Amino acid sequence: MPSVSLRIPVDHPSFVGHFPGQPLLPGVVLLAEVLEALLGDPEIAVRLGSAPRLGAVKFLAPVGPGAGLRVVWEAAGARVRFDVLRLDTDVETPAATGHFEAGATR
């Protein structure tokens, strides 16, 4: 399966106020990172089109400042299933799973 690794900056602005004393990456920011990674793959970008929509998501573990992540995906039809794995432990820990679908075209 294709994959891309990324690191969430310690000083990412979304950590301010979310949550004081125990910063947590908001789910919407994590999904934006996933979508950006997916759209970086030309085949997936064509498959999802210009208006991809989130079909489903499940958040499984928190993502904090400086977290290393690996996004893996698999395409089937107009759907692209993804898994986000945390790399900051001895074992890759699932952080999120879900799928994006091609959105309606105008």
Give the tally of structural domains: 1
Q: Report the mean per-residue pLDDT as an integer.
A: 94
The gross shape turns out to be globular
Biggest sheet record: 5 strands, antiparallel
Looking across the biggest beta sheet, what order are the strands in? 1-3-4-5-2
CATH class: Alpha Beta
Keywords:
106 residues; alpha+beta; Thiol Ester Dehydrase, Chain A; five-stranded antiparallel sheet; 2 helices; 19% helix; 36% strand; globular; (3R)-hydroxymyristoyl-[ACP] dehydratase; HotDog_dom_sf
Brief write-up:
The protein has 106 residues and is of the alpha+beta class.
How would you characterize the overall build of this protein?
The protein is of the alpha+beta class. The chain has one domain (3-101): Hotdog Thioesterase (Thiol Ester Dehydrase, Chain A, Roll), CATH 3.10.129. The protein is built from 2 helices and 5 strands; from the N terminus they run βααββββ. It has a 5-stranded antiparallel beta sheet with strand order 1-3-4-5-2, with helices on one face. A hairpin with a 6-residue loop joins β4 (79-86) and β5. The longest helix has 13 residues, at 27-39. The model has no long low-confidence stretch (mean pLDDT 94). This is (3R)-hydroxymyristoyl-[ACP] dehydratase. Residues 4-86 form the ApeI dehydratase-like domain.
